[in-house]
Specification:
binds molybdenum atom; Molybdopterin-dependent oxidoreductase; OxRdtase_Mopterin-bd_dom; binds the ligand Nc1nc2c(c(=O)[nH]1)N[C@H]1C(S)=C(S)[C@@H](COP(=O)(O)O)O[C@H]1N2; mainly beta; OxRdtase_Mopterin-bd_sf; globular
Length: 214
C-alpha cells in the first residue's frame, strides 16, 4: 500500500509512483470493475492490435494475438485511481511497456498525443509524455493471472499516473496524433488531462493549456 511507504526521491518513477493518496481518494482493496457498456467477448482469430496515425513510416503496424503475446513484458506495481474517489493500492500488472511499443512502431517527431482505442469505440486521449511515462503498460495480466473479462481481457492500457478512465480496457489500437482530440469521457465532461494529484476531474476545471475545449 502506498500510504505510509517511504518517499522514493526523484527517480524515474517519480511521476507514476508517489507515496500517499491523491486528494479526495480513499483506499479500497477490492478491485471492482468500472466501465460503460457491456464486456466484449474475445475471439483470438478475429483480434488484432494496431498502431496507426502519424507513424514515422506513415504505415500501420499490426500484431495478431499470437504475435502480441510473444512480445517482451514486464511487471509493475502501481496504485490505481478511479475518479469515483477510490484508489486500489498496489495493483500488480504484467504487460508490454508503452515505451517499448513506441520503439517498435515509431511515431513521427511531430506526434504530440495518442488516442487509445478500446472495443466498441471507447477511447481516451493522452499526451505522448503521459503515454511514455514509466509504469505505463499494455497489460495482459493482473496479480499474475490473465486479466478477467471485466478488467479488460485480453489487453488493456494501464496509465497509473492518471485517473482510471484513461486506462482503456479491451484495447485494440493506439493512434498517434499531431495535436489533441478529446476521447470518450473527455467529450462528456471529464477532464482532458486527468491528473489525480491535481484533482483534475471535470472539464470545467480546465485551462487553455489542458487541451481543446469541450
Ligand atoms: N473500454 C473501456 N475501458 C475502460 C472503461 C470503459 O468504460 N470502457 N472504464 C474506465 C474507467 S472509468 C475505469 S475507473 C477503469 C476501471 O478499471 P477496472 O474495471 O479494471 O477497475 O477502466 C477504464 N477503462
Ligand atoms: Mo473510473
Amino acid at each position: 500500500m502506498s500510504e505510509g511507504t517511504e518517499a522514493e526521491g526523484p527517480g524515474p518513477d517519480a511521476r507514476t509512483r508517489r507515496p500517499g493518496l491523491p486528494p479526495g481518494q480513499r483506499a479500497r482493496r477490492e478491485h471492482r470493475p468500472v466501465h460503460y457498456g457491456r464486456v466484449p467477448s474475445f475471439r483470438p482469430e478475429r483480434w488484432d492490435f494496431r498502431v496507426f496515425g502519424t507513424t514515422e513510416s506513415l504505415g500501420t503496424y499490426g500484431w495478431s494475438w499470437e504475435e502480441f503475446s510473444a512480445l517482451p513484458s514486464v511487471e509493475e506495481v502501481r496504485d490505481f485511481h478511479c475518479v469515483l474517489r477510490f484508489t486500489v493500492p498496489d495493483v500488480r500488472w504484467t504487460g508490454v511497456r508503452a515505451s517499448d511499443l513506441v520503439r517498435w512502431a515509431p511515431p513521427s517527431p511531430e506526434t504530440t498525443h495518442v488516442m487509445a482505442w478500446g472495443e466498441y469505440g471507447y477511447s481516451a486521449n493522452l499526451r505522448i509524455d503521459d503515454f511514455l511515462a514509466d509504469g505505463v503498460l499494455l497489460a495482459t495480466h493482473r496479480d499474475g493471472e490473465p486479466l478477467s473479462p471485466e478488467h479488460g481481457y485480453p489487453l488493456r492500457l494501464v496509465v497509473p499516473q492518471l485517473y482510471g478512465w484513461k486506462s482503456v480496457k479491451w484495447l485494440r489500437s493506439v493512434e498517434y496524433m499531431v495535436g489533441d482530440r478529446r476521447g470518450f469521457w473527455e467529450e462528456r465532461g471529464y477532464h482532458n488531462r486527468a491528473d489525480p494529484w491535481g484533482e483534475e476531474r471535470f472539464s470545467e476545471q480546465e485551462g487553455p493549456e489542458d487541451g481543446p475545449p469541450l
